[in-house]
Amino acid sequence: MVRRCLLTFKPFRIFVVGIGFFSLCFLMTSLGGQFSAKRLTDSPFTVRTEVLGGVESRGVLRKISDMLEVIMKRMDSLSKLENVNDSRRLEELSSAINRIQPAGLVERIQAIAQNVSNMAVRVEQILKNSMAASRVVRDGTSGQCDVPRDPRFPDCPGKVDWMRARWTSDPCYAFYGVDGSDCSFLIYLSEVEWFCPPLTWRNHSSPPVLPKSPPKRQAAFRTDLSTLLDQVGTGKESLSFMKRRIRRLASQWATAAYRLDIKLHRRWREQKKILVHVGFLTEESGDVFSPKVLKGGPLGEMVQWADILTALYVLGHNLKISMSVKELQGFLGVPPGRGSCPLTGPLPFDLIYTDYHGLQQMKQHMGLSLKKHKCHIRVIDTFGTEPAYNHEEYATLHGYRTNWGYWNLNSRQYMTMFPHTPDNSFMGFVSEELNKTEKRSIQQNKVRNMAVVYGKEASMWKNQGKEKFLQILHRYMEVHGTVYYETQRPPEVPAFVKNHGLLPQQELQQLLRKAKLFIGFGFPYEGPAPLEAIANGCIYLQPKFHPPHSSLNHEFFRGKPTSREVSSQHPYAEQYIGRPHVMTVDYNNSDEFEAAVQEIMRLKVEPYLPYEYTCEGMLERVHAYIQHQEFCSPEAPFPPVNASRVWPGGPFTRLPNSMLLGWAGNSTALPCWPPLSALRLMVSAEGQSCVEACQSSDLVCEPAFFRFINNKEALSKLEIQCEVVELEMNHIFPAYSVTRGECGLQKETLLFSCAGFSAKYRRICPCRDFRKGQVALCRDCL
Length: 782
Known about the structure:
- The longest helix is centred in the N-terminal third of the chain and has 35 residues.
- The protein is 41% helix and 11% strand.
- The protein is globular, with a radius of gyration of 35 Å.
- α6 crosses α8, α10 packs across α12 and α13 packs across α14.
C-alpha cells in the first residue's frame, strides 16, 4: 500500500500544485479583464455586469483557497507514512517535493487570493460611486427619467419595459451606452432608435454634425481586370472557377467597354459605391456549391456572379466584394452584437448586390437598419419573385408565404437570370461571342451526325423514358456525354454513349463547336449551357412540358416565390430564340421526336447569340439600371392635383390605327424610368395575365407604369363601365369584372403585378416597347 502511494504521490502532488496555479491565473485574468474593461470603446454594460459579480468572485476565490489548503494538508499526512524499508525513499521524495514546491506556496496563494478579493471590493465601490455620480450629472433628477406618455410615441412605454427585461440580450445596447437605468433606455430609444420622444434635458442646442458628402466622381470604363481578380480572393474552388471565367472573357469585356463608351457618346457617368455580398458562397450559409464545382455540380449561379462582378468593375464603379459574414459586418460598419441595434451613420454604399442568403445575413446583422436602407439592395434571384409572394402581410393572409420572398421590396429590386418575370429586373449573364473567322470555321467543321447530351450529373440520366428517345437518337447520331465520374463509368449512362467525363470549359467549347445537336433531358431548368451551345452553332432540342411545370405540380418549384408556369426546359430559348436554333417537342411522342431529329440533320444554322447575352449587352443593361433605377426617393402621387390643367383631355390618348392607348403630351413632365413615351395601355382577356396580354401585342409588361394607370381616368379612356370602383389590396388589381360590372384599383403599390391573373377579371395592363435583342430596355431607355 505504501509502495503504491510512493509510486503515485509525486505526479499527483504536482497535479494539485498545477491546478492551484491554473485556477489562480484564470481568476486573475478574468478579474484583470474586468478591471481593465472601462475603455473609451467599451460600454457601461461590460463593466457593470461583470464587476458587480465581485461578491461571487470573492466566494470562488475563498473556496479554491480552502480547497487547496485541505488538499495540501492531506498530502502532508500522506507524506508521513513510512516504514523501515521505505523510509529512505520517503526522504528522497520529500526532498524532491521541496525542490518543486517553494516554501510557503500555499500561504502565498492564500495571500494573493485575499488581495484580489479585497481589490474587487474596492473597485466595485469605486465604480458604483462613479456611475451614480455620472448619472446625476447626465440625467439630472430622477423625475427627468420618468417614462413619457406621449400619443405621438405610443410604443415608448412598451419598448422601455422590453429594454428593462432584455437589454442584456445583445451587447449592441451597451455599445450605445445602455447600462440598465431608465435614463439610458430613454436616451437609446429616442436618439438611436425612434420609439420615444427626445428628452428635453439632453443637449439638443447644436444639431449633430453630419459628415459632408464626398464630391461626385466620374465612372471611367476599365479594361485591366487584375485588381478585380485580387478582390475576388482565393481558397475555394468556386472562386477559382469565377476567376478563370473572368480571365477567359477579359478581352471581350474590354472590346464591349470601348463600344458602349462610343454608344453613350462618352457622356459623364457618376461612380457609385457598390458592395457585392455573395451570400450563397459564405460558410455561414453552408456553401454546398464549392465542393461540387469539380464534380459536375451546378455552375449557373457562379457564372452569373462572375459576370455581375466584371460588369460592375468594367463600368468603373467603386467595388467592394464580401464572401463572408465577417467581411459584410466590416464593410457595413454594424455595431458589435447580434443585430438588434440599427446603424446610426449613413450607409457607406449606394448599392448592395446580394442574394437571398445574403439578405437573410444582412437582416441578422443590420437589425432595424435593414428596413431603412433596403431601397439600396438588389437581390440576384434566378427564378424570380412575384409581388404576391414579396408582400409579407398579403402573402401570409392569402397563402403565398414561402421560405423565400416576403421582404417587402420593390419587385424590380429582384434581378433574374432570364427575362421571364417582367415584375423583376433582368440581370442576365454573358456567353462567349465568336468573331466572323471563328463562325466560319465552326460551320466548316461541324459533324453532321454528332449530338451532345445536356447533363453533367449521372442523376440527370435517370429520366423515365430516356432510353426510348436516346435509342431513336442513336439510330441517327453518335451520342456524346460529359458526365462526371471518379473511377467507374456511371451505370445510368447507356453503353452506346461516348462519355468524355467532366470537361474543362475550353474543351467543352471545342466539343460543342463540332457537334450538330445539343439535347436536354428536361433538367436542369433555365441554365446557361443551352445559350453557349447555340452560340457555338448547335441546334438545341428540348422537351415540351404537358402540363407546364410550376410550384403547384412539381417538387423543384415548390417553395419558390413564384407561380410561373414553365412550358419547357428552357422557356427563354423557346420564346426569344426559337426555330431553327431551338426545337421544342414532346419527347413522349416518338414520331414527333424522330421527325425533329431528321429535320435537325438537314438544317444548317449559323452560331447565334442574342445581343442581351453579349458582354456589351450586359454592360448596357447594367449601366441603365445603375443610372436610372431609383427606389429610395418617394414617388409623387398620380394623378396630380392640377391634372385637368396639365392634360385637358386626360393623360391618355388613342394611338393611330391601334386599340392601344399611349401617353398624351410631354412624357418628361413626370419623372419616370422607363420614360412614359414607351407606355402602351391595354386590357387583357379574362384569365390572362398582363405578361401574356402584352406579349400578344409584341410588347412587354412594365411594372413602373402601374401607378400611372391605377385610376378612374384610365378606366374611362378604355371605355370600361364601372358600377362600383373598389380600392383594395389585391395583386390582380387594377382590373374589372365584365359580368359583375365591378372595377378594382390597387391600394398597395408593392402589389402591382404583371404576373397576376384571375378567371373572373380582365387586367388593366401597362405595356411598353423594347429594343431588339434587349428586352429589358425600351427604345428610349438608354
